[in-house]
Design a protein that fits this description.
alpha+beta; Fructose-1,6-Bisphosphatase, Chain A, domain 1; D-Maltodextrin-Binding Protein, domain 2; 2 domains; 5-stranded mixed sheet; about 25% strand; globular; binds 1,6-di-O-phosphono-beta-D-fructofuranose; binds magnesium ion; FBPase_class-1; metal-binding
């Protein structure tokens, strides 16, 4: 990836993208508001035990998951910042049952924002990287008070997507449909600086990321695929593989954007009613757009994630994303299994 010679702030990068006709003024300002909210969340995360922000909130979200204090704080920060941002018609969060239109009394715009305010929250209390994932859609024409149904657009309709990782450094990864770029938070200056232009995911990899403890609950083709990875060079894949699992999707995807790999959260029969663990609108779609923009691939094991027509705001999907050839290989195991007679 080419290094950047001159420090370029996120603001300057976005102005250049606006001049090039890649973003509207409204979208530029909306991304700036999200980035500012991420800075605030980064400060809260960084306080750790000193800030009293660790531990459970004692509440559950709409998904029936126990919320961490920081899940609630991050959600509130994003809501507050964006309600006054002036560029949105509505927003939706993994932590809220329904989407929220921006009330009349606030300045409003034509975009819809969806977010996972804090991804990987099981890692907060052990001081491992967590992050924020976001996705931007257009509000359908003529709609002034968007409802859940207006957010149900395929991932290929996203106009921007990104995530922020709160790790050893705070980094913002962004696409507005013209490549994927990395910005690192300069903590002294308080601004995001472009540190990697045009990130690319190598086509091939020898590294996979999966929660192996679920293996016995997977479908047959998924078990076969991983068995073949583990046999390594003596098996049909003809090479040895390494494994990583951080259990924060943002951090696992960030590694893949940086050095390649494949990330898989397949369907499992622990809870057969759930079509997957990860959420289409807040996790799978934005990450799939980023990965595709960086030259990788993303499927649900059978079809391209960005082509899925959502039918629920909190819809879950299996996720296979990363290095193109490896995602194609894992997908092929499923499609060939589906084509078997009987
Ligand atoms: O604990 P598991 O089952 O391995 O799941 C880990 C996955 O769950 C997630 O933490 C789900 O995200 P949330 O923390 O936003 O619910 C992903 O970031 C991660 O990839
Ligand atoms: Mg998440
Ligand atoms: Mg979350």
């Amino acid at each position: 990836m080419p290094p950047v010679d001159q420090p370029i702030s996120l603001t300057r990068y976005l102005i250049e993208e606006q001049r090039a006709g890649h973003v509207s003024a409204d979208l530029r300002l909306l991304i700036e508001v999200v980035a500012r909210a991420c800075k605030t969340i980064s400060v809260a995360v960084g306080k750790g035990a000193l800030g009293g922000v660790l531990g459970d909130a004692g509440t559950g979200n709409v998904q029936g998951e126990a919320q961490k204090k920081l899940d609630v704080i991050a959600n509130d920060v994003l809501l507050e910042a964006n309600a006054w941002g002036g560029h949105l018609a509505g927003l939706a969060s993994e932590e809220m049952e329904h989407s929220q239109p921006i009330p009349d009394v606030y300045p409003r715009g034509n975009y819809l924002l969806l977010f996972d305010p804090l991804d990987g929250s099981s890692n907060i209390d052990v001081n491992v990287s967590v992050g924020t994932i976001f996705s931007v859609l257009r509000c359908p024409e003529g709609v002034t008070t968007p409802e859940d149904a207006h957010f149900l657009q395929a991932g290929c309709d996203q106009v921007a997507a990104g995530y922020c990782v709160y790790g050893p450094s705070t980094t913002l990864i962004l696409t507005v449909g013209h490549g994927v770029h990395q910005f690192t938070l300069d903590r002294e200056q308080g601004s995001f600086v472009l540190t990697t232009r045009s990130m690319t995911v190598p086509e091939e990899t020898k590294e996979f990321a999966i929660n192996m403890s679920n293996k016995r609950h997977w479908e047959a083709p998924m078990q076969q695929y991983v068995d073949d990875l583990l046999i390594g060079r003596e098996g049909p894949r003809g090479k040895d593989f390494n494994m990583r699992w951080i259990a924060s999707m943002v951090a696992d995807v960030h590694r893949i954007l940086t050095r390649g790999g494949v990330f898989i959260y397949p369907w499992d029969k622990k809870d057969p009613g759930k079509p997957g663990k990860l959420r289409l609108m807040y996790e799978a779609n934005p990450m799939s757009l980023l990965i595709e923009q960086a030259g990788g691939a993303a499927t649900n094991g059978r079809m391209r994630i960005l082509d899925i027509t959502p039918d629920q705001l909190h819809q879950r999907v299996p996720v296979f994303l990363g290095s193109k050839k490896e995602v194609e290989a894992a997908t092929r195991y499923h499609l060939e299994h589906d084509a078997l007679p009987g």
